[in-house]
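Note to self: the last two entries modelled the partners one at a time, which told us nothing about the interface. This time every component goes in together.
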Amino acid sequence: MLETESSESTDSDATAIRGQDIVASLGDIRKTYYMGALSVEVLHGISLDFYQGDYISIMGPSGCGKSTLMNILGCLDQPTEGKYFLGDQDTSKMEDDELSSIRGARLGFIFQSYNLIQQLNVLENIEMPLFYQGYTEADSHEIAMGLAARVGLDDRVDHKPFELSGGQQQRVAIARALAVDPLIILADEPTGNLDSKSGAEILNLFDELHNQGKTLIMVTHSDEMAERSQRLVRLRDGLVESDDRRNA
Amino acid sequence: MTDATLSSANSNPHANRRASSNSGFNFARFKKITEVGIKSIYSHGLRSLLTVLGIVIGVAAVIAMLAVSEGASYEAQQQFRDLGASNILVKSVKPAEVEESSRSGFGPPQAIVYGLTTADITTIRNSIPGISNVIASRIVKKNVWNGGLNINTDVVGTSVDYPVSRSYNLRAGRFFSESEMRDHGNVVVLSDEVAEALFPIDNPLGKTIRIDSDYYNIVGIMESEGFSNLGQNQAGSSNSAPSRIFIPFTSSKSRFGETTTRQTAGGVESETVELHEAIIQVEGQDGVIEVGEIIDQILQRRHKDIDYAIEVPLALLRQAEESALRDQIVAGAIAGISLLVGGIGIMNIMLASVTERTREIGIRRALGAKRKDIIMQFLIEAVILSGVGGLIGVVLGIAIPFIISAFWGMTTIVTPLAPILAFSISALIGVIFGIYPSIRAADMDPVEALRHE
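The predicted structure of the combined assembly is written out below.
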C-alpha cells in the first residue's frame, strides 16, 4: 500500500488525521474487465485516502486507469476487489439502487463535455439532482436560483444549454454538482473543451470552492491546472506512481 | 460565496429539506416526470404525431364501429320488440309452384286456393296449451276514396285485439269494438299515412271514406308506425305497405268475400285465401320458440304445399342479438389489430428515443436517478403518447358516428362505455409496449451511457 506523505495511519476507518476528516478512502482497489474468456486488470491495487477540503489532481498517461478510478470514485462502477468507503459507508457491496442514492446525495459530477440535458433550461438542469433526492419544488427552486447566482448565471436561468457558451455551460454543470452539497466533487477534465479564458474562469471557481472547504478531485492532463491543486496523484499502469502534497 | 449552499459539507443544510417521501408515490415527482415527458414528446412534434396515428385510428375505429353496430342492433331489436316477444306470426304465402305456372301465362284462368284457414287456427288453438289469443286478419288491396282523393292501400280485416297484440297505439279516436265486429259494422281505423293522404287538411275523425261502393265511418287513427313494420317487410308479406286501414274481420269477409281476382297478362287470375295472417299470442315468453315449432308441425300435416310462413319475433330477436354480437366481435378484432399495430409503433419510437437519449439516461443515472426512476420516465412518456393518441381517437370516434348519422341517416349509438374502454385500452397499450424500452433504458450501464455519443 502506498502511503501519502501525510498519513501516519493506514487504518481506512480513521476519521481524524491532523484534525482533518477522511471523506473517502480507497483500500487496495483492483478492477478487472472481462471480455469473454479474456480478462484485463486495469487497476492493480490502489489505496488512497481523501480528506475533507482536499483539492486533488489526478494525472497520468492515457490507459493508466484514471477513468476507471474516477468511475469507481463516482460509484458509477464497482471495484472487482478492495474497499471503497465514502464517508462512513462501504460502497463496494452496494446494490444498484443504493449506489444511485449515494451518487445523488454525496457526489457531484463535472464532465468534460458538460453533460447538460438539452431539453431542460439552466434552472431545471441545476435542479435535477435535487429532484432525484426528493426535494420539494419550492426548495429546489430556491437552491438552484442561489447556485445560478453563485456561478454568475442568474440572468440566464431560463436559457437552454445550446444558447450558452461552453464556459457558461460548464458553470451550469458546476452549479448542478453543488446542488445537493456533496461530500466530494468529481471533475473529469473540466476545462478540456474550453478556451483558455473560460478555462481560467472555471479554475478560479474551483479555487473558491476549495477555499470554502469543498473536497475536489479532478482528472487533468495539464500541469498548469495541476499546479493549482493542493495534492497531485500520478497514476501509471494501474498503480499510484506518486502522491505529492503541496502547500497551497 | 456567502451562500449557505456552499458552506461546509459537515453541516449539510439540505438534509432536513429532503421530502419525507422519497420512496412511494409522490405527486409532485410524478408531475415533474410528466412535464419532462410532455416536453420531450413536444420536441419531436411530427414524429410523435405519426407515432400515435395507429392508436388514433384504432380508438376512433372501435368507437365508430361499435356506435354503428350498436345503432343497427338497437333498430333491429326495437322492431322485433314492437312485434311482441311473446307473439308468433303465421302468414299465408303463395306456394312457389303455383306462382311459377301463373307467371308463365299458359292454360286456363288460374284459380288458386292457398293459405291459412280458420280450421288451421282452431286446430292450433285446441292442440297447443298456453295460447292466450289468436288475432286473425284478412288483407285485401283496395282503392280507398275520400271524395276525389284516393289511395291504393291494404285493407286489414282484423279483430279488436290487433293494436294491443302489436303494441300499436292509436293517435286519435278508438279502435272498432266487439259489437261493431258482431254487426259487420262499416267502421274503419286509418293508419297515420292514409289519414295524411286522404285528409291533408281536415280532421278525418267522424268523416267517411268509400271502398268499392260502401261507405265506412272513421272512428280512429293509428300512430305513425315508424320502422315498426319492418318485421313484415322482411318477411315479404302482402301488408308491407306502410299505408293500411283496419276494418272489422267480419266486415271484410262479408264485403269483399274470400276470392280476389286480378287481371294478368295471360288472363284472369283468382286467388282464394281465407286468412292472410294470424298473430298467435303465447302466455309468457319461455315457450314461444317451442310453440312456433309445434305450429309448424301442425301446419305441415294440414297443408300439401308450403303456403304459409311462420315468424317468431323472439327467435328473430335472438338472431339479431347474435349478429350484433358478431358485429361487435369483428369490430373488436379490427380495433384490436390496429391498436396492436399502434402499440408496436409506440414501442418502435420509444426504442429509438431510448437510443437517442442514452447520454441523457447516463447523466440522470449519475445524478442519482434509480433504475425505477428511469423506467418511470420512459413509461410515463409512452403512456402520454398513447394517451394523447387515445384522446384524439375518442374525439374522432365520437364525431364519426355523428357524421354517419347526418349523411346516411343511420342510427348510431355511442355508449359511454365505448370511449372509456377504448381510451383505457390505449393507455394500457402505452404501458405494455412501453415496458420493454423502459427496462432497456434502465438497464444501461451508467458508464457506457455517459460515454455514448
